Structure formats: C-alpha cells, structure tokens
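Key idea: predict the complex, not the pieces.
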Amino acid sequence: MGDSIKTYVFDVYGTLFDVHSVKELCEELYPEKGESISFTWREKQLEYSFLRQIMGKYTTFLEITKDALRYAVKKQDRTLTSENEEKLIEAYLHLTPYPEVRDVLERLKAGNKLAVFSNGSHDMLDPLIERAGLAELFDHIISIDEAKQYKPSPAAYNLVLENLNVRREEVLFMSSNGWDISGAKSFGFQTAWINRGNQPTEELNLKPDHIFTNLSGV
Amino acid sequence: MGDSIKTYVFDVYGTLFDVHSVKELCEELYPEKGESISFTWREKQLEYSFLRQIMGKYTTFLEITKDALRYAVKKQDRTLTSENEEKLIEAYLHLTPYPEVRDVLERLKAGNKLAVFSNGSHDMLDPLIERAGLAELFDHIISIDEAKQYKPSPAAYNLVLENLNVRREEVLFMSSNGWDISGAKSFGFQTAWINRGNQPTEELNLKPDHIFTNLSGV
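Result:
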C-alpha cells in the first residue's frame, strides 16, 4: 500500500469473521435447513439495517440480528424457540475468524494504527473480538452505534475520522462487502475489496482502489 | 375497507405488474440463465435503490435498472451487448399486469381517488401504464423522482400527501413488497400487503393492517 496510508480499518462481519460459521449449529437445530437459514439470516440482517436507516427507525445490530434470525427460521416453516434463539445468538458471538487474519494483523501492526469499524453494536462486537484473542491487536473498536447511523451512510464512516483523528485519504478501509466498499469510496477512503466470494464488482460507479481474494493481499 | 379510506394508492413493480415477465426474453438471450438473471436483476435493482438512498447518491430508477441488469448478466459470466440491453430495457416498459388488476381498478374507481406511487421514474412508469391501457384509471401517477428520495424514506411517502392533498390515515397503500409496506406503515398510511409470494411477514415491528394474496381482496 502507498505511503499515504496511516490507518488500516477493517470491517468485521464477512471480512475478519466468517458469518456462515453458524451454519453447522443451524443445521443441528433445523436439520436440512441449516444452509438456507444461515443464508437468509445474513441477507435479512443486511436488508433490515438498510431499511431501518432509510426509514429512520434505528435499533441496534444485535436486535436486527435477532429479527433477521426470526424471519429466516419462519421462512423455512420452523419455530424459533427462545432456547434456540439463545444458542444461535451466542454462536454469533463466537464466529470463526478467517485463517489469515491474525498473521495479517500482526504484520500490519508494526508502524500503523489498526481499527475495526462495524455495523455491529459493542454488545456483540467486543465479545466476538475478545474471544477470538484479537483485541490487543486493534487500537480502536468503532461501532456505528456511537452515531446510530448504519453504513453505508456518510455519517457512519465519519465516525472513523472522529475516533482516529486522521484525514479520510489516509485511511485504507477493507471489507468483503461490495456495498460497504462503495460507501467507503463514496465517503473518500482508500478502499480494498476483499472479494472472498469471487463476485462481480457492484455497478454503483464507485470502483474499489484494490481487489484481493483475501486479506493476505493487503 | 373502512369508510375513512378516500384514496387507494398502488405500488407498481411486483404489485400491479409482474417484474418477472421479462424472464422469457432473458432466457432467449441467455439460454439456461434466464431465471437467474431475472432474479438477480430485481434483487440488485432494489438493493441499489436502498444503497444510493443511504449514500446520498441519487440517480433515476431507469439508470439503476440498467446498472442492476449489467450486474445480473455479469454474475452469470455473460456479456450485456448494447443490443441486448436495449431489448431488455424495452421489455421492462412492457411488463405484464397481474390478471386481476383491471377489474379491481374499475371497481375501486367508483367514488374513490386512485393513484400509483413508485420508485420508478416517469420515463419508465408512464409508458408502462400507458401501454397496458391503464392510464385512464388513475387520477395521479406519482414518482419518487419528484423528490429524488427512494422508498422507504418518509420524504418519498410524503409525495403522496403533497400530490393528493389527503391526510395520511385516509390513504390505503398497497404493495407486494414487504419492505414497502413497512415504510408506508411507519409513515402512517393504512396498508394492505399483497403477499403474492406467500412470504413471512417482515420482522420490522410494523405489521400490515391487511394481508391479501392478490389485489382482488381489497
């Protein structure tokens, strides 16, 4: 990366952690429906954050994650008991980090500021990063809950500037989510799209500055 | 419907017209990929309207529809020639209305004001309704392009009040899109969800006032 980059900012869900590592538990609790439930759960989690942002009806990402889970189970004509909800939400606090994450963070930490910046509220973000043993590698854990404005709104990305006291062009923002990269690029960050799923570039006239298949490329 | 309803307002895409009536042409132009392209086209069309609303990067729904088509074709590793783009966008101006639409409109027209209210810009909305022979049944054709704010933002739904000079509780808003019903309910309209796809209710704490499987129930 160029000399102008002083701060490396990571998205969390899908970028540092595999959101589909809950699939096995979904399958155990809802046989033959695990993959569908996991897929809809993530899809609705994102959609509800977008819709609530547009409607001006904020609630925390933890609440949205519960709502999305409820929808996903209902869609498969199954019932979400409070016991299953508790197990699945607990599993979301123990997602698996991608294999290259620790090495990349340790390498970049020398001489740079590292932060995470997520739609997740601190009640789900802090335990996740703590339990994965990654907390000491980050200088800041930034949640959009501090502004109650979801990504990709400019007000959300602005939290990075407020927390880290940097200029936007000094930030390299990394996300596996194409829409998040579009939002960050629109805001003025330098961007690296971690295209883990070999997806086409989004057609939003906001191309990523860099594209890698995983974080090792950074 | 109750006596308090004076104005019947219809969403367009998916509610009056079947957006997947372009599937056959997709299949003809991209054999074996028609259904996938049609599905992703619609999915991305909605997602891009949400994302642009949140990023504050407005462009018309016609442009978004072209962008979404480009993504959908790319996702299937196919190429969208300008000839194919022209054909498919032209097909979007000739979507098929659902079979009950004309009867329902003719019945409701007696004594009530009827309007359409859509994310679609007038350059796609007006020819669509005209060519289906439905234009004379509506008192108003309202596009969010007049405010450049996509649904489900309150500023979009407010266009209905401005155009029709009614109070929000006098409006019955009908849509097949669960997210659109949530937005309309949040704004204060009475709502009827036309649940054509037998989907679960959205988990946004905004239940529809009525649910029907097609418009005949209204």
